[in-house]
């Protein structure tokens, strides 16, 4: 990928390389990237840094404000922390989700989720974890197959799990098992499913959701492209995203650059997957032929 683009991307790449990545910051920068592409993007030469600063500062301030709304109580148990978040965020403030939220790009953008108080399970879980963390709770995200939830307490000791998409409803083992089985077609709940999700793992899943939203919408190929490009800025990402980016460049009419990146990707995978590499080179030749 040629460079890291504007301010939002540069800051995203820097934040992703930190020793302890800031989940809220990374998600707010995804929102800033989306805002920069809305309505055709900014005019060339326009300084985007003030706009990025505003989105980040307002988002962090709102998370701080929400944390300040939690009633103070010394020595809360995990169950009490879960109940406090459910009452404040889910009950009083109305943060939750519905099936219709899966059809909206805003449901994957933290600034919009903070504004609308609606979103996908993973973004609502980001709100829950970031507010609870600021308030001093032992909290972590859990990347269940098909549904993201939040844990309070010690992941290998006393803990409870809650579903922010459902307003913060606590989940028992039977409900968790049904949730996982429904998403996987019957795979049983395992200890691995319940491990804490790291910030970069969470951010990659957010970007995957954006790619999945844009995929069946050809008119949103630009959204899919920037989601792929942000994913490629993460220290660890699926290598095949490089090929996806090349395909998107070709689809959007940038045949030469798309073909060149296909050829570079083919060189990388040739040793391990020679047949796949030849197919990619064939696609690159077809892209170059479209210039004639």
TrEMBL record:
It comes from the Bacteria. Coiled coil: none annotated. Residues 60-208 form the Protein SirB1 N-terminal domain. Belongs to the UPF0162 family. PANTHER family: F-BOX ONLY PROTEIN 21 (PTHR31350:SF21), SI:DKEY-261L7.2 (PTHR31350). This is Transglutaminase family protein. It comes from Streptomyces spirodelae. The lineage of its organism: Bacteria, Bacillati, Actinomycetota, Actinomycetes, Kitasatosporales.
């Amino acid at each position: 990928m040629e460079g890291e683009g504007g301010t939002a991307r540069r800051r995203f790449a820097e934040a992703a390389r930190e020793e302890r990545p800031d989940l809220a910051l990374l998600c707010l920068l995804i929102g800033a990237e989306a805002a920069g592409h809305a309505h055709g993007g900014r005019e060339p030469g326009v300084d985007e840094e003030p706009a990025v600063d505003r989105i980040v500062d307002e988002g962090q301030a709102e998370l701080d404000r929400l944390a300040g709304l939690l009633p103070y109580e010394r020595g809360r148990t995990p169950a009490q922390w879960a109940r406090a978040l459910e009452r404040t965020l889910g009950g009083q403030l109305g943060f939750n989700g519905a099936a219709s939220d899966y059809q909206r790009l805003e449901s994957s953008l933290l600034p919009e989720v903070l504004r609308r108080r609606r979103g996908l399970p993973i973004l609502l879980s980001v709100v829950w974890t970031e507010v609870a963390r600021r308030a001093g709770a032992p909290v972590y995200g859990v990347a269940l197959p098909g549904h993201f939830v939040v844990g309070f307490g010690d992941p290998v000791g006393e803990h409870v799990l809650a579903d922010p998409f459902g307003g913060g409803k606590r989940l028992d083992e039977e409900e968790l098992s049904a949730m996982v089985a429904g998403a996987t077609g019957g795979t049983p709940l395992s200890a691995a499913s319940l491990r804490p999700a790291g910030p970069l793992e969470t951010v990659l899943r957010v970007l995957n959701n954006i790619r999945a939203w844009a995929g069946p919408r050809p008119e949103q190929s630009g959204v899919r492209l920037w989601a792929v490009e942000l994913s490629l800025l993460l220290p660890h990402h699926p290598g095949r995203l490089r090929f996806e980016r090349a395909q998107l460049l070709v689809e959007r009419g940038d045949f030469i650059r798309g073909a060149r990146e296909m050829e570079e990707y083919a060189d990388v995978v040739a040793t391990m997957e020679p047949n796949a590499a030849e197919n990619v080179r064939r696609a690159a030749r077809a892209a170059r032929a479209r210039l004639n």
